[in-house]
Design a protein that fits this description.
The protein is mostly helical and about 200 residues long. The protein has eight helices and two strands. Strand 1 and strand 2 form a beta hairpin. Helix 3 packs across helix 4 and helix 3 packs across helix 6.
């Protein structure tokens, strides 16, 4: 039977419930692609290149991946929450939520970024016990360099893609990432895989 076509749109998508094998194949391909991406992006290439274009921190230590994480978190929080409100503040707790780590770990990573001269800490006008975080000139430089490298890398990967393809990929990937944030796979999910495999 031919696929029905609406008068105003493209052919209707096949019903996934009627074509489970096609759906299963797509999910397997997505899972494998994500696995490969994780292996590729786990390599510290970004930090090495950013490090080559920026000086070491004020403490003399080379740039660390955790420094980049904190810089990106503080920059994103400042842009999202403080763009129209000069009285707002970026706290260690907010960084912990942004990075999805516990407050004690966030406090340690923020401390390293402070020692490296990438983040500044001012007293909070609301609560003297809290720190109001911001980027230093060095922190902004690191952010600019890492953003430039990331865009250049993605541009190279997507050579030959049309503007429409890039826009559609961005839309779908953002939708996928938002769904993953809402329903993350926690480490115990790996344990369940081995338990079920052993049971079989």
């Amino acid at each position: 039977m031919a696929t029905e076509t609406s008068a105003t749109g493209p052919p209707a998508e096949p019903d996934a419930s009627r074509d489970g094998s096609r759906s299963d194949t797509a999910l397997s391909e997505i899972a494998m692609a994500l696995f490969h991406l994780r292996r590729v992006w786990a390599k510290p290439e970004l930090v090495k290149r950013v490090r080559a274009q920026t000086s070491a921190g004020t403490d003399g230590r080379p740039l660390q991946l955790s420094n980049l994480m904190v810089v990106n978190a503080v920059a994103a929080l400042t842009k999202a929450e403080c763009a129209d409100d000069p009285s707002c503040e970026v706290t260690v707790g907010a960084v912990a939520e942004r990075l999805e780590i516990d407050p004690s770990t966030a406090s340690r990573l923020v401390g390293h970024a402070l020692d490296a001269g990438l983040v500044s800490r001012r007293p909070s006008p609301v609560d003297a016990r809290r720190a109001n975080l911001g980027l230093t000139d060095a922190g902004r430089r690191v952010k600019q360099v890492s953003d430039r490298f990331r865009r250049a890398y993605l541009d190279e990967l997507m050579t030959g893609w049309s503007a429409r393809e890039r826009a559609e990929f961005a839309r779908l990937l953002t939708r996928f990432a938002d769904a993953a944030v809402q329903a993350p796979m926690y480490p115990d999910g790996i344990g369940r895989i081995f338990e079920e495999a052993a049971a079989d």
